Amino acid sequence: MARRKKRKYTPGTGGAPPPKAPPPTGPDAPTPPPDPPKPAGRPGSVPPPTEPPTEPPGAPEPIPPEAEINADDRSHKLNRLYWLRIILAVAAGISATFIFEPFEGETRRWASIGYMIVLFAGTVFVAKTMRIPLSRSDRKKIVTQALPSYVLMYLFVWVMSYTIVNASAPDAGIMSPLP
Question: Is the pTM of this model over 0.90?
Fold first, then answer.
């Protein structure tokens, strides 16, 4: 604990500080107040916490602490971010089937993966505008929230939609799941 320096007396009109009256002595002197009782246990230990007083019946409910409000808000916004990324993965997987139709072979695969990464990076910027109340140690949740689910959902929907669209092509060599 930091100690405070004693201030020197600065007289307003110049002069010495007023003299202190000596403590009264004799039979008319007041008795000093008794020392407060010391808590049981080790010297210097913290006393056990006391229970807060109970509210009378019919009293209004106490307002939840700020931490609980932020926890609920954080949970709600992280849920919204999760489902935003899942829905985007489904839509992007279907659209990738048609956007990258003109490309062939490896170029199609890498273009689609690049498309997936760019869209995910866009969701990071959207997440930052959502103002999710996260501590400094939890900031990585903006990026990691739903990342594996996003990647796997995108790839699954992309492969599935590509298979359904191109299954009936005569040169595909794929049997059609539809009659």
Answer: no
CA 165 to chain centre: 42
* Assigned domain for 36 exists: no
Interior/surface letters 74-97, b for 16+ CB within 10 angstroms, e for the rest: beebbeebeebbeebbbebbbbbb
Number of domains the chain is built from: 1
* In-domain check, residue 117: yes
* Whole-number pLDDT of residue 121: 94
Structural domain that includes position 148: 66-166
